Amino acid sequence: MPSFADDPRRGRLVSALVPLLADSCPKGGGGYGGAFEVRLPFSEVEELGGLGLFRSALRAAGRSLDWKVETYGVAGAESIAGAVDRREVPAEFAEAIDQHMGAKKRDAIERSRPFAATGGAKVTSEPPGVIAAQRLRDALAADRATLA
Fold first, then answer.
1. What is the largest CA-CA distance in the chain?
2. Local structure of residue 22 (DSSP, 8 states)
3. What pLDDT was estimated at residue 129?
4. What is the DSSP string of 71-97?
5. Going edge to edge, which strands form the sheet with 78-85?
6. Quick one: DSSP state of residue 29?
7. First CA to last CA across the chain, in angstroms?
8. How is the chain split into domains, by residue range?
9. Chain Cα centroid distance, residue 137
10. Of 3-7, 41-45, 70-74, 114-118, which gets the smallest average pLDDT?
C-alpha cells in the first residue's frame, strides 16, 4: 500500500475530519465510542485523492484522538468510507455508550419503516453518512477559504 503521509491533500482531510470524528463520540462518553461514516459520489472521492488517501486520513484523524481506529471503504457510484473507535470503553462511560448505541439502532429502524411500509418507496430522512458528507464538504470549503 502506498504511503500518503507526505500528500498535502491528506493533511487537509485530516484537519477537516478530526472535529467530525470527535463530534461522533457520544455525549457523556469521555471521547469513546465514536463512529463516522461518509457517503460520497465516486468522482468526489477521486477529487479528494482516492479512497486509499481518504482512509489514510481517517486513520490519522482517529489516531490524533487516541482512537484504536478501524477504517473501511467501498468504492462505487456512491463510495462509502468510515472510521470506528475500537478502544475498550471504561466502566465509567459504559452506560452513556450503551444508551447512545441503543438510540442509533432505534433511529435506523425508524428510518427504515417508511421504506418497508410503502413497499420500497424512497425513505425521506437522510442517513447519517449523507449528512456527514455535507459536513465534510463544509469543513473542506472553510479550509479552502482560509488558504485563499
1. 50
2. H
3. 64
4. EEEE-SSEEEEEEEE-PPPPHHHHHHH
5. 35-41, 78-85, 69-74
6. S
7. 33
8. 8-147
9. 12
10. 114-118
